[in-house]
Amino acid sequence: EDLRIHNATLTLNELKAQGQGESVEALYWRDGIAYWSLYRGKNAEALAMLDEGEAIAARMLPEKDRWRQIRAALRAMAETRLAEEAGGQTREQVEARLKGALEGLPRTGNARGVTYMVVQELTDLYAKGGTEADRKKHRELEATYGLMIASIEKGKGSSGGSGSGGGAKTEEKKGEKGTAKPDLKVENGSPK
Predict the structure, then answer these.
(1) What b/e string do you get for 76-110 counting C-beta neighbours within 10 Å, with b at 16 or more?
(2) Fewer CB near the last or first residue (10 Å), C or N of the chain?
(3) What's this model's pTM, rounded to 2 decimal places?
């Protein structure tokens, strides 16, 4: 098991035991678990964490909040991967869903890891296709996310993980009791 997921789950369980399972902090930990679950290819677990936090996010975050945009992108990734695993989506549907997940996501700050993961999925999708149309789409993606794609391609084969999203990286810092926290900065209820 991923140590980040394990530690985040312990922290979330502590919050729940203290009666704070519906707090912004608990939502932060749920979303961290969702991110790292996606990173490790545990798509159903990621979706379960996002579902568990949906009511909290709806109650505590404004509709156009960046954090909600990040949550929507994580959800799109999880649902797309699950549908693809089940054979329930065409390649075009996968592409449209992933492109939709990118809309509105900033390319810096705490959204960078999520953006990176979605761009990697699209890059892999185009690489599998191998047609001229796929190469054109890859060039268009590269024009928008060039530096990010270059670092994805440079990182292939590194120890960044396995499966879909394995090359995504985010900064970590030590939390209380030695737990690792993804570097999500929150101001006024919104990640920055």
Answers:
(1) bbbbbbebbeeeebeeeebbebbeebbeebeeeeb
(2) N
(3) 0.73
